[in-house]
């Protein structure tokens, strides 16, 4: 292993892609990475998972989300596992293919890292006018041969909905064994008047690290309902680039996160309004305990001519420990004069009066703290438009909180 982690990964992969031979992982001197320190990655000797490697996963891990009636699609260390997936009887109008990876979406660091490490691309396509009733559940599983294995891998999923199509997609990330450095990328294209529910659960173990990217385009009259639940115990950065490309498009981008130990949870969003009368809503809640750190960087750009834009952004966080930290940086950049845009960010502690009220009624302090924390985060989960998915995410969050706070 070299002193330069990035170059060591590229050497193992055998493809430097768009990287300079001396380029390294970004440091906190870079504005986009100011609050997210990647030095923790250096303590592991990562081995890049290659196409010819074989894994030992025989079933979807118990830690994974359970969604009744879902179409399960399983990727292990970045590659589609057809034996674990349910591909024999896909609904009419839904097609799925796995093949060589195409180039990522932009020229940012995460795009180029994805290009360098991704070996296979999964493509989902919904035909015009088709409604896929069953949720499509994409399981991202990290597997290592033993508890100390350090596996680096990348996965790319492209989702296309043609005009008038409708679907619900859930992507969840868990660790079966070992430690993972994962680079998932997601490309989404919503055709005119299509509707997509897109829900992500990041639940990887301590010692894991994820640098993820989602690039989403919303066309005329299309509707996106999106949610990110980040309850893993390692490093998780999800960068979302949302482009409102068609008039009267609507997008809800919400999320909840909970950090303990030395977890670092980073949500970075960039919403671009380039069409008239489009609406975007961002609503995030976070809770940090112990020495954990939360980051929210959210920017809304309204381009010239995007009149009638309605762009709202809100982030609130609770600190349960004097050593926990949250960094929030909401931004607006507006070049149109007929818009409704606002942002807000607050950080605080649990309400002592509410805590006293619960304890006065015989509820132990730990349980009272857990109840107040859960109610704070559930406010974000309630924004999920699909009731069945909302229930699953609510249960996953409650289980995580009970394990750490009660």
Tell me how many strands there are.
Answer: 20
- What percentage of the residues does DSSP assign to strands (E)? 35-45%
Count of separate DSSP helical elements: 5
Write the H/E string, N to C: HEEEEHEEEEEEEEEEEEEEEEHHH
What ranges have pLDDT less than 50 throughout 5 or more consecutive residues? none
Residues in helices, as a percent range: 10-25%
Commentary on this structure:
- There is one protein chain.
- The protein is built from 5 helices and 20 strands.
- The strands form 2 sheets. Strands 1, 4, 5, 7, 9, 11, 13, 15, 17 and 19 form a 10-stranded mixed beta sheet that branches. The chain has a 10-stranded mixed beta sheet with strand order 3-2-6-8-10-12-14-16-18-20, with helices on one face.
- 16% of the residues lie in helices and 42% in strands.
- The relative contact order is 0.10.
- Strand 2 (71-76) and strand 3 form a beta hairpin.
- It has helices at residues 5-13, 109-117, 352-360, 365-381, 387-405, and strands at residues 47-48, 71-76, 79-80, 94-100, 120-126, 136-142, 150-161, 166-175, 179-190, 195-202, 209-218, 223-230, 235-244, 250-259, 264-273, 279-288, 293-302, 310-319, 325-334, 340-348.
- It has 406 residues and is of the alpha/beta class.
């Amino acid at each position: 292993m070299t002193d330069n982690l990035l170059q060591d990964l590229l050497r193992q992969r055998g493809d430097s892609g768009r990287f300079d031979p001396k380029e390294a992982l970004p440091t906190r001197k870079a504005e986009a990475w100011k609050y997210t320190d990647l030095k923790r990655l250096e303590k592991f000797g990562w081995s890049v998972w290659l196409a010819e490697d074989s894994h030992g996963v025989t079933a979807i891990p118990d830690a994974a989300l359970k969604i009744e009636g879902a179409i399960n699609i399983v990727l292990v260390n970045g590659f589609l596992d057809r034996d674990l997936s349910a591909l024999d009887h896909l609904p009419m109008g839904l097609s799925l293919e796995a093949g060589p990876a195409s180039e990522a979406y932009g020229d940012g660091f995460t795009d180029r890292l994805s290009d360098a490490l991704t070996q296979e691309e999964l493509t989902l396509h919904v035909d015009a006018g088709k409604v896929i009733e069953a949720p499509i559940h994409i399981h991202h599983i990290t597997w290592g041969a033993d508890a100390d294995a350090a596996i680096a891998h990348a996965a790319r999923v492209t989702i296309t909905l043609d005009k008038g199509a409708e679907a619900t997609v859930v992507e969840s990330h868990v660790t079966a064994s070992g430690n993972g450095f994962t680079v998932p990328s997601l490309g989404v294209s919503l055709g005119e008047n299509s509707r997509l529910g897109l829900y992500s659960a990041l639940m990887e173990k301590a010692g894991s690290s994820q640098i993820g990217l989602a690039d989403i385009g919303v066309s005329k009259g299309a509707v996106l309902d999106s949610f990110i639940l980040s309850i893993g115990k390692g490093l998780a950065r999800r960068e979302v680039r949302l482009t409102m490309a068609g008039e009267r498009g609507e997008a809800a981008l919400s999320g909840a996160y909970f950090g303990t130990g030395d977890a670092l949870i980073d949500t970075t969003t960039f919403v671009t309004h380039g069409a008239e009368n489009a609406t975007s809503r961002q609503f995030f809640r976070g809770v940090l305990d112990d020495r954990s750190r939360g980051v929210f960087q959210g920017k809304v750009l309204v381009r010239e001519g995007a009149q009638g834009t309605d762009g709202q952004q809100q982030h609130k966080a609770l600190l349960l420990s004097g050593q926990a930290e949250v960094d929030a940086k909401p931004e607006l950049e507006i070049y149109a004069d007929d818009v409704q845009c606002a942002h807000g960010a607050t950080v605080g502690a649990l309400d002592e009066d509410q805590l006293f009220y619960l304890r006065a009624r015989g509820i132990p302090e730990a349980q009272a703290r857990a109840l107040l924390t859960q109610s704070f985060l559930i406010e974000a989960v309630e924004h999920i438009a699909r009731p069945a998915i909302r229930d699953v995410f609510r249960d996953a969050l409650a289980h995580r909180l009970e394990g750490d706070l009660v």
